[in-house]
Amino acid sequence: MLKLTHSNKIEAGCDEAGRGCLAGPVFAAAVILPKNFRNDLINDSKQLNKKRRDELRFIIETEALHWAVASVDNYEIDKINILNASYLAMHRAIDKLAIIPELLLIDGNRFNKYKQIPHHCIIKGDGKFLSIAAASILAKTYRDEFMDKASLLYPQYGWDKNKGYPTKEHKLAIMKYGYTDLHRKSFNANIQMKMEF
To answer: At 181, phi and psi to the nearest 5?
Structure first.
C-alpha cells in the first residue's frame, strides 16, 4: 500500500509522462486526494497495464478532490529543453487546480519552485505516494491518447505502440520518412548519433 500523505497539509502529487520520447508533447498531472482515500491498486503507471490504468483513471478523476492535466508541445520543448518543459508542464497542471495546494509532492529529484508553495522531491515517488502515482496514471493515459490520435495522421511511425519513444521501429521510420511536425528537433543530433539497435 502506498503512503497517502506526507504531512497534514493539502498535498498535490505531481508527475509527468513522455520525457524520453522523440515525438509528441510532455504531459504532466497534479492530483489532490481526500485524506481518507484508499485504493490498493494504484501504483506507478509503468507497473500497470493499459486496462488497469484506464480503470484507475476513472476512479482518480471521480474520487480526487481535484485533478488537472497539462502539456508542453514539442516546439516549446525544443526552445527550453525537455527538463524545463517537464517542470513547465507540472506548473501548468498545478495552475489548473481549483484547490490551492499547501505542499507539492514531486516525482524525481529536481523541480523548479512553483510560486510560494513548498515542495518535496521524492525519487521514485510514483511508487511511494498515492497522489504521485495517481498523477503518473493521469499523465500517462492522457499522453497515450494524444499519441494514439497522432498515429492516425502518421501511421508509419508506430506511435500507437511506441507512443513516441525511441524504439527500433520508430528510429527506422525516421530514417526512411524523416521527421514530422510532432518530432522534437532538439533530439535530432542525438538520434543520428545513436541509431544503434
So the answer is: -80, 5
| Residues in contact with 57: Cβ distance below 8 Å, sequence separation at least 6, in sequence order | 137, 138, 141
User: Which CATH number is 120's domain given?
Assistant: 3.30.420.10
> pTM to 2 decimals?
0.93
C-alpha grid cell for residue 126?
Answer: 510514483
Give me the sheet containing 66-72, strands edge to edge. 66-72, 26-32, 11-17, 103-107, 119-122
CB 67 within 8 A of CB 61: yes
Provide the pLDDT for residue 188. 59
Give me the residues paired with residue 122 across strands. 107
**Strand 119-122, strand 103-107: pairing:** parallel
Q: What angle do the packed helices 50-63 and 130-153 form, to 10 degrees?
A: 120
Query: Do 63 and 37 contact (CB within 8 A), yes or no?
Result: yes
Rg for the chain, CA atoms, rounded: 17
The answer as to whether 35 is a domain residue is yes
**Which residues contact residue 194 at a Cβ distance below 8 angstroms, ignoring those fewer than 6 apart?**
none
Whether 3 is in a domain gets the answer no
Q: Mean of the pLDDT values across residues 3-16? A: 94
